[in-house]
Hints:
Blueprint: H1 8-19, H2 22-28, H3 54-59, H4 61-72
Amino acid sequence: xxxxxxxxxxxxxxxxxxxxxxxxxxxxxxxxxxxxxxxxxxxxxxxxxxxxxxxxxxxxxxxxxxxxxxxxxxxxx
Length: 77
């Protein structure tokens, strides 16, 4: 929340919503909810999570940056 927010109470209510009922909204919109109480494709075991080892990312940083740019940003930079 901004230091001089014009409506700090509204910001607090929005924050509260996003941490409670908003988690279900995020799931419907295909975002990963932060709440462990909401079942997701990952928690149900329907999608496996595979983490990339940090040393691999550090050793091949240029390759991963290029892949990030191509895949997630839609082109080279």
